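Technical note accompanying the year-one report. For the benefit of new consortium partners, we illustrate the data format agreed upon in the data management plan: each record pairs a sequence with a structure-token string. No post-processing was applied to the example shown here.
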Amino acid sequence: MTTKTKAEPKSSGVTNGGARIVVDGDDEVLSPTDLSEMLAEGTKDSHDKAENCQFVKDFLRGRIKRELFKRGTAALYFVYAAMEEEIEKNEDHPHIAPIYFPAELHRCEALAQDLEYFYGEDWESQISLSAGTKPYVDRIHEVGQRDPVLLVAHSYTRYMGDLSGGQILKKVAQRALKLPSTGEGLNFYQFEGIHSQKGFKQLYRSRMNELELDAETKERIVGESNRAFSFNMMVFTELEEIGKTIKEEVQDAGLGHSHAEIMEGGDINKCPYYAVKMVASGNPTYACQLAMTLLTHPPCQWALAAWVALLAGFTAWYLL
């Protein structure tokens, strides 16, 4: 993959020194030894485990408590404050400088705005580093001071995850917590400096792949990325445990046909969207389930009744 400056073609949506950086996606040829490929393959299991944490599954279903969302935002603030502090200290490091995009990626200011929305102007006095988040923060400071190349792993794990799945979480949180459509409380998910997320991620991966790293260092970065996933899961587990002690009712999306409401029972197999996905993938077992799920969903019952009435009327007219 080549990175260069052109007048118009495919743009990453990022500017650098006044010129627009262009990534030739059509010329992209990846190798299994490229760091981006090693990270994608080497963290697959960790990624799946993180996605299947109960806290994450509940979040995606729209079953999120406002207090937990606030605490999660505070945890992210401490993580990003540590990571961005160490990145700033090492911005001239040969392995950090190529992936140093503070204007596009840094999240501390956005998280501070979100915390002010939830806690008020004195938000800093109301939050503290939790026991579940502290090991994560401590590790980031440790690698920043002793082995800065491993910051590549933490940067990749957080920022690329935010760009990829963060937009889905933003929509879920906005509906479930009934947050303003103007974005208050959700600035963390809004990357104002990136106009094309796909283009920027291509650029970021290309910069990582161009780092001069030996095979052993690449493996250490993959290992550190898996460690970062483990730290994130510790935060999720802590929030899940805290959630059990909070009596606040779960918010829903406020729509009768919302995914959160359909998933009230917590069984993903009862979700029509999940069934559709499985049917489309060629799994015949879910075809019947899809039909039964739709038939038990009130809007579908009304639609079916209307369709049957229309068919009966047409048949009667035809036979006259």
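Partners are asked to follow this layout when depositing records. The longest strand covers residues 19-23.
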